[in-house]
Amino acid sequence: MAEKIIIDIYKNKNPDELTKLLADKESRLEAGSAAAMTAASAAALFSRAAAFTAQQVKNDARIDYIVRNAEIIRNYMVYLIDEDVKSRNPLRKAIKEGKEREIEAARQPAVCIAGEIINMMGQCLELMLELAESCPDEAVHYLGEASHLAMGAIRSSRVYIVNMADQCSDETYRFVTRRENEMSLEKFSAVYEKLNLLVEEKI
Questions:
Q1: pTM here?
Q2: What is the pLDDT of residue 5?
Q3: b vs e for 148-167, b when ≥16 Cβ sit within 10 Å of the residue's Cβ?
Q4: Which domains does the chain have, with CATH numbers?
């Protein structure tokens, strides 16, 4: 009889299980999964602020769009907890087999989910900034809290990507990866700072 294959679905685990796995050096969970969890929390608080806003600003198509997208992003970030694990499967296999060429080839796609988290949290921050003007005063603190979590997810994803890139022998790839991520951080940090100035004014 064939051995039963058990596949872990990490997004279904509770916070205690997930954090214990992140702490375990033998675990398949890595920084990308942690960033996805943080990003999901950011999107959840953003969604909460958007719901309060929609309750006050009725029949506004743009607010309704933001409400829908905040929830879509939250759900997508939860989905990425497991996708990050999958994205590194070829790299883990290559390392286990000790194949240098395969290891080199697998490093770049191994950071694809972390890159997606950066982009989606950047979009989240831009939507938060748009929402801030209409958000009622009693709910605007959720945007501030969400923005800090979003930037945490962006910054941790960037560190993970740059660290992985630094292990590649391709000097051009290392330079381009580092510069691209510096530019993303600069761009989204500017949005984050502007958003928090608005939040501080309203709280």
A1: 0.91
A2: 45
A3: ebbbbbbbbbbebbbebbee
A4: 30-202 (1.20.120.680)
